[in-house]
Design a protein that fits this description.
The structure holds 2 protein chains of 2 kinds. Chain A is mainly alpha-helical. Chain A has helices spanning 3-11, 15-36, 40-56, 67-82, 127-138, 144-153, 158-165, 169-194. Chain B is built from 4 helices and no strands. Classes of the chains: A mainly alpha, B mainly alpha. The structure holds zinc ion (ZN). Zinc ion is lined by residues 9, 12, 35, 39, 41-42 of chain B.
Chain lengths: 195, 88
């Protein structure tokens, strides 16, 4: 069921609909909160506060963005106000997202990568592959984890993610590139062990 | 058109994420596309990145503990009780 329908249902008093949205979005909301506050318990307070604001209609959804973008923005605003973290500085120094040893001194592949095509298709719901991706995301440092979650898992635009995390779009792209490269490496290792 | 400086595989790899997001400058996009047209290895890497992003889009949210869900469910009940008070 889509988010907007669930929103209507819970505003009309349906607890189940509310819980469904909580299951869908609480982890991402916590991630956003942790971007701004220092402790897990403060992040949980921010998340509770966010849901309460939605329940009370203190914030009204007017469909100018998707429901989740709107929800994440509420969380970001509240977390920002509570914010206890030092301003983040994102290093934009180039880092090797593929191990330097994979390239020759002239920058050519020593051992070329192989397409992942067989990880897709009928295996899209392959439990092991998806668990691998999930573990790789969990292992990412913040804020790479938040960026890849909002952009590639939740499907927000780069500018929406930049807005929610108070980072420049250039920073978002750098973080996204690093995060995707690590997930890719993890899948490549996984594929190596399968064969 | 002015000559476009060619890039090696290591440089190509650094551009692929932005390329998939349509975020490269025209110059860099042309450099990369020219490299990809001649390099099977980097084309395979591009495919890997596409698959990686597609798979990432299917994992869904992390699991929420039953306790956390219960706690937030309680917020809903609290709110319901609150709004009933308001009506009286
Ligand atoms: Zn190449």
């Amino acid at each position: 069921m889509n988010d907007e329908v669930l929103l209507e249902q819970f505003l009309a008093g349906d607890r189940q609909a509310f819980c469904e949205l909580v299951v869908r979005y609480q982890p991402s909301i916590l991630g956003i909160a942790r971007h701004y506050v220092n402790s897990a318990s403060t992040a949980e307070d921010v998340a509770q506060d966010t849901w309460m604001a939605v329940l009370r209609g203190a914030e009204k959804f007017e469909g100018r963005s998707s429901f989740k973008t709107w929800l994440f923005q509420i969380a970001a605003n509240r977390a920002r106000r509570t914010g206890t973290r030092e301003h983040r500085v994102i290093s934009v120094d180039p880092v090797d997202t593929v191990a330097a040893t994979r390239f020759s001194s002239g920058g050519m592949w020593n051992e070329p990568p192989e397409p992942f095509t067989d990880l897709l298709g009928s295996q899209l719901d392959n439990v092991d592959v998806l668990r691998r991706v999930r573990d790789a995301i969990s292992a990412l440092p913040d804020p790479q984890k938040s960026v890849v979650t909002l952009r590639d898992v939740e499907g927000l635009t780069t500018s929406e993610v930049a807005n929610i995390l108070d980072l420049s779009e250039a920073n978002i792209r750098v973080l996204l590139h690093r995060a995707r490269a690590k997930i890719r490496t993890s899948l490549e290792d996984f594929k190596g062990t399968e064969q | 058109m002015a000559l476009i400086k060619s890039i090696n595989c290591r440089q190509a790899v650094a551009l692929i994420s932005d390329y998939l997001d349509g975020a490269l400058t025209t110059r860099n996009r042309l450099r990369l596309e020219r490299h990809l047209a001649a390099c099977d290895a980097c084309s395979a890497y591009l495919d890997q990145m596409r698959v990686t992003i597609t798979l990432t889009g299917t994992v869904g949210p992390e699991d929420l503990s039953p306790e956390a869900l219960e706690e937030l469910g309680n917020i809903f009940d609290l709110y319901q009780a609150e709004s009933k008070d308001d009506e009286q």
